[in-house]
């Protein structure tokens, strides 16, 4: 039996936080292997990247999610008791609930709400002179997704909700004040979402039948029980929070258009905009890893995976793997021309099957919202990009250009 190449340092948590997204890839290069072992948060952890690793990682007979997410991440990013930590039938049932919300018509409806929000905001942008894209888009997405999900949102509530949702997203890999802001954001948001669920159940609130709020509030598990208030709140936030997080991909799309201006024209073509959006998702950093635990011991490619061992799939490293993506550090949307899709190669939002595994339930929404944003940025408005800090610090997880992407002199084309 071969030994998985093992990092020499007693614990690599600080190195991971210091290096950020390239951490696993760098270790893999160092040991000449797409699978390495190290200790993270004082726990032995197998780290893997690449296509074969992704295929293995999404084999639900071999891996489970129970207990995989560190408590810090549950207290901020995901919450406790949600779909991310479920396995087997319980996962299947809960995941089907999410996927029922993602019909093509529903995805289009959210896209249209986002475009409408953006158009309504343009007069204010024209007057403002200077606009920072990230907070503005996050706020528009909060309004759009709440309207889509059947969630009432008073005008005076918008900033508070957006700030709390952003704090949860920003806290994912933080040990500093960002972690505490994330915890507070989660606490307040779960309270808010719990009240909404109770409002529907008690009849003081109504929402159309196929909206996320209604579906989640009325969902019954495999034994016919309503979800406990706190868990229903976590699941409602599992729709609202990541939709607001798409603001980060919108900023990266704006950055890519700035760095590769030839694409401003090209994205008017339907195939080209698809290629552009896929390359933004591949190229720019978002979630560094996904985590699971070995369900029961097995051997793979001569390596032993002991029961209970934590395993990380390097999402960023797989999206930048030179065997899958020639010249991975080049931004080249053309690489997706004629691409037929591969559930284990492009994994910014996880891999495998949507229903059978833990692949992101919101991939279609993400792609639609990104396309809508690219259309506004190239077709509906013109703007200037003044000198600013556009560097993307890969040690900062989740990453963004330092400035949040500032634009000036916004003017409408129509
Ligand atoms: C900003 C863009 C997004 C990114 C980068 C992203 C990324 C991810 C990742 C990496 C996972 C975990 C995959 C795994 O554990 O194997 C995930 C799961 C999930 N995402 Fe997303 N996501 C995004 C947008 C969305 C949206 C818009 C929604 C819903 C409206 C959504 C809902 C979910 C849910 C419910 C899960 C849990 C799935 C499960 O455990 O079965 N995400 N996402």
From TrEMBL:
InterPro entries: Cyt_P450 (IPR001128), Cyt_P450_E_grp-I (IPR002401), Cyt_P450_sf (IPR036396), Cytochrome_P450_3A (IPR050705). It holds the Pfam family p450. Keywords: Heme, Iron, Metal-binding, Oxidoreductase. Signal peptide: none annotated. The keyword Iron applies. It comes from the Bacteria. Belongs to the cytochrome P450 family. This is Fatty-acid peroxygenase. It comes from Micromonospora lutea.
């Amino acid at each position: 039996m071969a030994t998985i190449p093992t990092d020499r340092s007693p614990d690599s948590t600080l190195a991971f936080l210091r290096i950020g997204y390239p951490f696993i890839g760098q270790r893999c290069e160092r040991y000449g292997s797409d699978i390495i072992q190290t200790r993270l948060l004082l726990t032995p952890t197998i780290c893997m990247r690449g296509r074969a690793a992704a295929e293995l990682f999404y084999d639900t007979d071999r891996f489970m999610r129970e207990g995989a997410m560190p408590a810090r991440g549950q207290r901020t990013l995901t919450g406790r008791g949600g779909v991310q930590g479920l396995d087997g039938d319980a996962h299947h049932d809960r995941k089907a609930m999410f996927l029922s919300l993602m019909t093509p018509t529903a995805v289009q409806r959210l896209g249209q709400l986002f475009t409408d929000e953006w158009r309504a905001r343009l007069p204010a942008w024209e007057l403002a002179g200077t606009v920072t894209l990230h907070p503005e888009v996050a706020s528009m997405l909060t309004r759009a997704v709440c309207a889509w999900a059947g969630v009432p949102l008073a005008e005076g509530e918008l900033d508070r909700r957006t700030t709390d949702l952003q704090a949860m997203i920003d806290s994912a890999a933080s040990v500093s004040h960002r972690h505490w802001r994330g915890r507070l954001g989660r606490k307040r948001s779960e309270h808010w979402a719990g009240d909404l669920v109770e409002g529907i159940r008690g009849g003081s609130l109504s929402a159309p039948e196929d909206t996320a709020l209604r579906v989640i509030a009325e969902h019954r598990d495999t034994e016919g029980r309503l979800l406990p208030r706190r868990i229903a709140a976590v699941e409602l936030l599992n729709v609202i929070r990541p939709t607001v997080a798409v603001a980060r991909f919108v900023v990266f799309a704006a950055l890519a258009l700035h760095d590769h201006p030839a694409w401003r024209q090209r994205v008017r073509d339907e195939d080209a905009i698809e290629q552009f959006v896929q390359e933004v998702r591949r190229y720019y950093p978002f979630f560094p890893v996904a985590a699971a635990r070995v369900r029961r011991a097995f051997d793979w490619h001569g390596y032993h995976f002991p029961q209970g061992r934590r395993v990380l799939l390097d999402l960023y490293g797989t999206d930048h793997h030179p065997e899958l993506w020639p010249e991975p550090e080049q931004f080249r949307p053309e690489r997706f021309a004629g691409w037929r899709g591969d559930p284990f190669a492009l994994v910014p939002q996880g891999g495998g099957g949507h229903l059978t595994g833990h692949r992101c339930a919101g991939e279609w929404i993400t792609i639609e919202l990104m396309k809508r944003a690219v259309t506004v940025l190239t077709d509906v408005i013109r703007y200037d990009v003044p000198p600013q800090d556009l560097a993307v610090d890969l040690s900062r997880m989740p990453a963004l250009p330092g400035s949040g992407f500032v634009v000036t002199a916004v003017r409408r084309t129509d």
